[in-house]
């Protein structure tokens, strides 16, 4: 069985980075489930699941390709001597896996974009920024279709992707067209996503130091852009091999996974997150599950929900954010109730078992999506009468 290049440290790096990536993704889901519960998971959580699947697929195919080789190495090996039938079968199988790796690698990158776009979509609901997010989402979808078609038809007929003898040519072995199209569209779409949080920072009502920290977290796409550019430059300038092609791809993906999930992992560093007294935490990313209180004091976890609350206050159009699409923090929910106006401000209706407290009379749409207000009261069980 041919080995593409004798670099066992390459496999050590692949699986070490894979372990780090899995820990990051696991930490993300721990935070989200702790914050909103399984019923409160949103679109960005779905994309994160896809990231995990494609990440595992990518690492597995890269591992096998290392031992099998591809038609990139087959051309060099054929110059040194005739290839056996077994060598040809191995190179063909490795080349097929390399094609699968291209699909999983690009799908992983665009799933990361989907994670960020779903995140920003919730942060900007009810503001003019949301139109920009929706436009960016459509452009990212079109960009992925272009990348998918390039991988599929860049080398045609399809079986030339794994042809060993005769040599099918560079566009079916090294596949430079895949690098160019993927990198250009990847950088362009990342740059577009990178611009989304910049205007939102102007509406933040926080000290400058904290504003800079939040801006760094939300604008982490700059690191992904840098990793993508470094990958294509170093890969195309090195001697063609499956190791050189895949090594920088593995490093680029771990950078993307880390930077995209940093805002979600921030609550882990807070004491409130690990407190057993807090059964539901404000969502650091959004979700309806966090809107159901349990009678404990609202946790002071300064995650990305803090940004959404400030955006509500600075919304120049005065449009009310809907509680079903809010960031899920208790601060946002109370703020939304204050903005509405109800026809019966003295009515109190509690439909399920919650402990609810409020210091002032409010009206409008309640957090149970009903009409009525909430006066200073405490409900510990059963149903309260309508006053």
UniProtKB/TrEMBL annotation:
Swiss-Prot/TrEMBL keywords: Membrane, Transmembrane, Transmembrane helix
Residue stretches of biased makeup (Polar residues): 346-360
Topology versus the membrane: Multi-pass membrane protein
Transmembrane segments: 14-34, 46-68, 102-125, 137-159, 179-200, 212-234
Region spans: Disordered: 280-387
Domain Rhodopsin: 28-270
KW Lipoprotein (keyword) present: no
Coiled coil feature spans: none
Entry-linked Pfam families: Fung_rhodopsin
Recorded GO CC terms: membrane
Protein name listed in UniProt: Rhodopsin domain-containing protein
Organism: Emericellopsis atlantica
């Amino acid at each position: 069985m041919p080995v593409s290049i004798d670099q066992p440290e390459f496999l050590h790096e692949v699986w070490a980075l894979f372990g780090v990536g899995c820990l990051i993704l696991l930490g993300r889901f721990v935070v989200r489930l702790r914050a909103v519960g399984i019923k409160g998971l949103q679109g960005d959580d779905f994309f994160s699941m896809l990231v995990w699947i494609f990440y595992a697929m990518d690492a597995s195919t890269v591992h096998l390709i290392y031992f099998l080789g591809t038609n990139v190495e087959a051309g060099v090996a054929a110059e040194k001597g005739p290839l056996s039938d077994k060598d040809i079968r191995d190179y063909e199988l490795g080349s097929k896996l390399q094609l699968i790796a291209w699909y999983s690698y690009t799908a992983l990158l665009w799933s990361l974009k989907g994670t960020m776009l779903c995140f920003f979509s919730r942060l900007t609901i009810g503001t003019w920024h949301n139109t920009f997010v929706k436009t960016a989402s459509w452009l990212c979808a079109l960009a992925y279709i272009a990348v998918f078609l390039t991988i599929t038809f860049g080398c045609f007929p399809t079986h030339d992707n794994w042809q060993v003898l005769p040599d099918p040519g560079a566009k079916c072995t090294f596949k430079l067209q895949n690098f160019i199209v993927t990198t250009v569209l990847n950088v362009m779409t990342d740059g577009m996503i990178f611009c989304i949080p910049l205007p939102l920072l102007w509406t933040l009502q926080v000290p400058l130091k904290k504003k800079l920290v939040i801006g760094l977290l939300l604008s982490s796409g700059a690191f992904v852009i840098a990793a993508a550019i470094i990958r294509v430059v170093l890969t195309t300038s090195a001697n063609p091999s499956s190791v050189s092609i895949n090594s920088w791809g593995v490093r680029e993906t771990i950078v993307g996974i880390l930077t995209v999930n940093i805002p979600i992992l921030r609550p882990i560093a807070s004491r409130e997150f690990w407190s057993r007294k807090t059964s539901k935490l404000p969502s650091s990313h959004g979700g309806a599950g966090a809107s159901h209180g349990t009678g404990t004091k609202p946790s002071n976890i300064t995650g990305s929900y803090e940004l959404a609350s400030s955006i509500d206050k600075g919304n120049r159009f005065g449009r009310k954010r809907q509680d079903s699409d809010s960031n899920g923090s208790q601060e946002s929910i109370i703020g939304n109730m204050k903005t509405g106006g109800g026809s019966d401000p003295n009515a109190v209706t509690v439909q399920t078992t919650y402990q609810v407290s409020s210091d002032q009379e409010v009206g409008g749409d309640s957090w149970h999506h009903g009409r009525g207000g909430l006066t200073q009261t405490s409900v510990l069980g059963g149903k309260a009468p309508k006053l």
